Amino acid sequence: QVQLVESGGGLVQPGGSLTLSCTASRVTFSISAWGWYRQAPGKQRELVAVTTSSGGTEYTDSVKGRFTISRDNAKNTVYLQMSSLKPEDTAVYYCNLRGSSGYRTYVSWGQGTQVAVSS
Questions:
Q1: Which residue, 53, 46, 30, is CA-closest to 103?
Q2: pLDDT tens, position by position, 39-92
Q3: Which residues lie below 8 Å from residue 115, measured CB to CB, with a gap of 6+?
């Protein structure tokens, strides 16, 4: 089973920056997309950013211009660079991996990492 391990979360002041990392192990399929989701207390899970095998990226409107998703294919690692952080960015962030092997498809999730933006 694929394992996703996240790191990089923490406490940061408004306007600060953090970079999250997510590394996949035991990947036996072709990766088609990486995504970052977040869930704030009492709120629904939200898609933050996604990058596909074709190199395209998409962001939810609230983070455009502030967050950047990227990946290192050789390391099976995806990153989320976050800048100009706002209190409303406070949430547990989860990485997501999608891929396929033959007719099989795979979806995996990281354990979550807490990002707290507070003064």
A1: 30
A2: 999 999 999 999 998 889 999 999 999 999 999 989 999 999 999 999 999 999
A3: 9, 10, 12, 18, 20, 38, 82, 85, 89, 90, 91, 92, 93
Phi, psi of 24 (to 5 degrees): -100, 140
Q: Distance between CA atoms of 22 and 17, rounded to whole angstroms?
A: 17
Matching residue, tokens 């211009």 = 65
CA dihedral (41, 77, 19, 90) in degrees, to 10, reads: -10
Provide the pLDDT confidence category of residue 1 given band limits of 50, 70 and 90: confident
